[in-house]
Amino acid sequence: MRHKEFNFNKEMTLELYVEERVIFNIKRYRSKATMCRETYLYTTLFAVILGSLVPILINMTTCKIVTTIVSFIVVMIIALENVFHFRDRWKNYQIAEELLRRELYLIQTNGEPYSKLDEQSSFVLFVKNIESIIKQERDRTIQVRSSEIKKAN
Are 73 and 50 in contact (CB under 8 A)? Predict the structure, then answer.
């Protein structure tokens, strides 16, 4: 998903900001959350299924190489989750998406904290809140990725 080329020369309105910044990031976070969720669930499912097969294969004396390969695959799946933190990233993206949606609904329905403000003040507060949500998500992602790098080294 690519961001449209931003035109800095046009006046920024609420509608333009919502379209170019908020909706874009909601879709981006949804896409990333879905990818991380599916990766986490499938790798966990495979680890559980293959891990459950290991005791059976151990009791079958003719399958030592198969047992070793299956055990190795289980270890690799668990190691990948520990390095890439698909579950944590899924939750971070999902939280960011939900917070952006909430803020969008609040401004669209003139809910608190926007109800008592004039249009310009509401817009400024909305932008501040949206940018804060995006920054928090980026900070959490950097923290998770930093732990990925530390574990990889």
Answer: yes
